[in-house]
Design goal:
20% strand, alpha+beta, five-stranded antiparallel beta sheet, four-stranded antiparallel beta sheet, 2 domains
Amino acid sequence: MNMNRNILKEIFFDENKNWDRFVNIHRKSIRKIVIDEVEKFRLCGEKEAGFSLFACEACGDIKIVPHRCKGRFCSVCATGYMQEWSMKTAENMYDMPHRHVMFTLPEELWEIFLKRRDLLKDLMDLSVELLKDWFKKGAKVEVGMMVGLHTFGATMNFNPHVHILMTEGGLTNDGKMKHVGFIPYEMMRKRWQYRVIKMLREKLSGRDKEKYRKEINNAYNNNGKGFVVYGPPNKRKDGIKEQIGYIGRYMRRPAIALRRIISYDGKLVTFKYFDKKEKKEKTETIDVMEFIARIIRHIPDRNFKTIRYYGLYSRRNKSKVDKILKVKKNKISKSKWKDKVEAGTGVNPLLCPRCEIEMEYKGTVCLKKGKLVITYAKCAKARRCLEGLIGYEPPGKKKNTKGRRKEKAIKISRTKEQQIDGQICMFAM
């Protein structure tokens, strides 16, 4: 597949207008946050959403770099954000053994959490409480946990489960670190099953409780099938950076990577996935409307935190524990998009094709209330250039004359090719 091609955008917004048709059909059942995120995605990498201006000091050539939506729904932005998040998170974790623990649910219960998204926070809290209670009572230590909610499986089905990266051991009451490698998973699994079912029976309304009575009873009686608590020891002895990089693929990645989408013909979408049960790669072809329905269900509710920190890593405890462990804080610099592109492609996207020197940042235009507005201009010349690019008219002045329109057209034409180039260079794929 052409790496410059965003096939997901085509699926949603090509001439078939699949997203608009989907909204017309399902308007009443679509959450507002979904509408907002998809519309952000529609303008991602487009000049109409705002851009930054760069210019070559030697020859005067300019380059327009459109802004990205930075939404987790967007496969390009989410991939770039995952890399940034992994780097920052690894720097804030303690340099000690950690373990990746998973809590899963039986398939019968998946739909309940799809319909009652407010219970997903309870799901995260329950998994944390089980681990914290055992380590506090059994091992007499307080552990640190980074907890992530993951909602999708390989085929984008709604499969809520919890990933936890936790310290192997923790802090004793007298302020010393104690290693604890043993976790009683079978006992934990039984408690997990009991607590989840108890929570559903307590929190579901009478109507929902009756609707899902069969599914809940089956989950209770089916010998714990689907309720899994497991976290194998880190046999490779990977460091925290490697572990964060691994778990980040679960916690921060989008529901489907662009490379997994094989084809789209306007009506059908074919994608590949790895079947863990049969341990082989498969493909699935589904109607485009079904594809859209599957992918948007994984957009979290507004302000819902899919990653949370507990114990030693909680905001309340982190600074105190840092002092006890004498942790030196490193200043973490945010990677520039230029560096990300260069690292992924080996090409400096700001290198002037004529002079082979790096272009300089000159200003930024942002979309505010449906209108492009200059938020920063390095100098008067840069401002005039930006005004020309957005078609700015000073208050009280007449519309552009024919001559000025021609001048504006020349400027935009001159940068057309560069503008296209800029659209693909915010994050390396």
